[in-house]
Design a protein that fits this description.
The chain is α/β, with parallel strands linked by helices. Helix content is 38%, strand content 11%. Strands 3-4-5-6-7-8-9-10 form an eight-stranded parallel barrel, surrounded by six helices. The longest helix is centred in the C-terminal third of the chain and has 32 residues, at 310-341.
């Protein structure tokens, strides 16, 4: 059976421009928006653009490869698809199509807690997937999710810790968007808000009382056989404490600029955390990756792999699994070219020497 590629798309930005016309405006605001004035959202892209590369010539590129070993898995390139909620709002096959594309391309995938398909349905077509987890007020329910992920064959848990509350996302508010009840968000259980007086804070006097702490990380590590990665680390001190606690990896992230505005770009946070961790656990990075050169820059500054979120949802909306495969092929081609032109035959060759120094 022949497949139809999406015409006239040559970069990840092309997918974004085309997808804007075929994604419902409310979900588009949810997907694309950031917190408050969206300074961090913009900075994630700007910071990558400010980093320059050092080209090299006449390098021996025999046996070149982008293969990556990560927590016992072999990936075709150092890339994973980040957790994004409710993907059936852009394509009928939703997370199933994304899992098929990731498996076909040999890249990793982390399924969102707020998936529009059950974690068991996605595991049936995914290749060694990871499961994103939020520790919720109902700890028993949280543990049920962990047990389901273990039973379904997930290879790791991605514990997102940088969003104990939602960011103030004005773009989303102006669009009046809320995830519809028809979307099957089986991984979230909301605790009803208690009645509050006029002087009470719904946040400080309510939800934060059950927000997870370092004690909950210890609890999770003691209640699962899966490796746990901490997602949302932006401070070197937190990275050190997480390593000491026994996490299997860290994902340097500002949540795509969606939680706290005025944070630095993820790529700006990475070097300090990499220096602190010193290779004791794998470091991953998300936020602002749009080019193969961005992948190279992240690896040069200490990441072992990167994640993308919004771009693959654009491709999903335009072409389902085929669209996501097409996008991943473009990104792989760009990454291979960037490696070759900086004299890197393998990922082991990528270090800060590929960055231009003033």
């Amino acid at each position: 059976m022949s497949v139809s590629l999406i015409p006239a798309v040559y970069s990840l930005d092309d997918f974004e421009q085309r997808a804007a016309a075929c994604i419902e405006p409310g979900y588009w605001a949810y997907l694309q928006g950031g917190a408050a004035d969206e300074a961090t959202l913009r900075r994630n892209r700007e910071a990558f653009a400010e980093i320059r590369l050092q080209g090299r010539v006449l390098a021996d590129l025999g046996g070149a490869s982008t293969r990556c070993e990560l927590l016992g898995q072999t990936l075709s390139m150092p890339l994973l698809l980040a957790p994004v909620a409710a993907q059936r709002l852009v394509h009928a096959d939703g997370e199933r199509a994304v899992a098929e594309a990731a498996a076909a391309m040999g890249v990793g995938m982390a399924l969102s807690t707020s998936s529009s398909l059950s974690l068991e349905e996605v595991a049936g077509v995914a290749r060694s997937p990871w499961f994103q987890l939020y520790i919720q007020p109902d700890r028993d329910f949280t543990l049920q999710l962990v047990r389901r992920a273990e039973a379904a064959g997930y290879r790791a848990l991605v514990l997102t810790v940088d969003a104990p509350v939602n960011g103030v996302r004005n773009r989303e508010q102006r669009a009046g968007f809320q995830l519809p009840e028809a979307v099957n968000l089986r991984g979230m259980r909301v605790r009803p808000a208690k009645a509050a007086g006029i002087l009470d804070s719904p946040l400080f006097d309510g939800r934060l009382g059950s927000a997870p702490t370092w004690r909950d990380l210890d609890w999770l590590l003691g209640n699962t056989r899966l490796p746990v990665l901490l997602k949302g680390v932006s401070a070197a001190a937190d990275a050190e404490r997480a390593v000491q606690a026994g996490v299997a990896g860290l994902i340097v992230s500002n949540h795509g600029g969606r939680v706290l505005d005025s944070l630095p770009a993820s790529i700006e946070l990475l070097p300090r955390i990499a220096d602190q961790v010193g290779g004791r656990v794998p470091l991953l990075l998300d936020g602002g990756i749009r080019r193969g050169t961005d992948m190279l820059k992240a690896l040069a500054l200490g990441a072992q792999a990167v994640l993308i979120g919004r771009p693959y949802v654009h491709a999903l909306a335009l072409g389902g699994a085929v669209g996501v495969v097409q996008l991943l092929n473009i990104l792989r081609g760009e990454f291979e070219a960037a490696m070759a032109l900086t004299g890197c035959a393998t990922l082991a060759d990528i270090d800060r020497g590929v960055l231009w120094q003033r």
